[in-house]
Amino acid sequence: MGETRLAPVVVDDEVTQIVGSTRNITDQKERERRLQKFEKMVEHTGHAVFFTDVDGQIEYVNPAFEDLTGYTSADALGETPDLLSSGEHDEAFFANLWETVLDGNIWSGEIVNECKDGTRFVANHTIAPVTDDSGDVTDFVAIYDDITERKERERRLQTHELVVQTINEVAFLVDEDKRIRFANDAALDFADEPREAIEGLPIGPITEEMAAPDEDPRRFLDAIDALLDDVEPEVGSWIREPKGSKTLSFEFDLSLESIGDIHTEQRLVPVELYDGARGVAVISRDVTARTESEQTIKTHLEQAQSIGTVGSWHLVFDDHTLYWSDECYRMFGIQPDQTMTYERFLDSVHPEDRERLDEAWNAALEGAPYEIEHRIVVGDEVKWVRETADITFDDDGEPVEGVGVVKDITDRREREREIIEQKRRYESLFNSVGGAIVVTDLDGYITTCNPGFTDLFGYDSTDVAGTHLSTIIDECSDLERLLETTDARRESLLVDYKRTRGRSFRENHEAYRFELTVATSVATLFI
Question: Would you identify the CATH topology of the domain 433-526?
Answer without folding.
Answer: Beta-Lactamase (3.30.450)
